[in-house]
């Protein structure tokens, strides 16, 4: 949880510090002539990539909460990532309401079971 929150915080700060590029034809042609192109990598692409990784991973799909077999790491991480994609933030309370569970239970499950596999998928682990 701490790793994910810290990573998210620094990504958001990095993105917010960058000036919004004006991608007019003149800017692109000048950048091409200088040999410098704008960086296409952004937060939305990162979230889409993470969502794709989580959707395809079978280990996350099989990793389930003991007393709530319908809830897997895949379902929980997708809920978090989709909330981030839609609003830029997520709330444990909102996800807990969506899943019909307590927020503390979800946090513990995610911290103990889901984040390690997620870090492996993203190359951070």
Distance N to C terminus: 14 Å
Q: What is the total tally of β strands?
A: 0
- Which regions are unreliable across 5 or more consecutive residues at pLDDT < 50? 20-40
The shape, in one word, is globular
The helix count comes to 7
Rounded mean pLDDT is 76
| Rg from alpha-carbon coordinates | 18 Å
Biggest β-sheet strands, sense, barrel: none
Work out the strand percent. under 5%
Class from secondary-structure proportions: mainly alpha
H-E order: HHHHHHH
Q: Helical amount among residues, as a percent range?
A: over 70%
Task: Describe the protein's architecture and organization.
- There is one protein chain.
- The longest helix has 20 residues, at 103-122.
- The radius of gyration is 18 Å and the shape is globular.
- It has 125 residues and is mainly α.
- Helix 3 packs antiparallel against helix 5 and helix 5 (73-87) packs across helix 7.
- The protein is built from 7 helices and no strands.
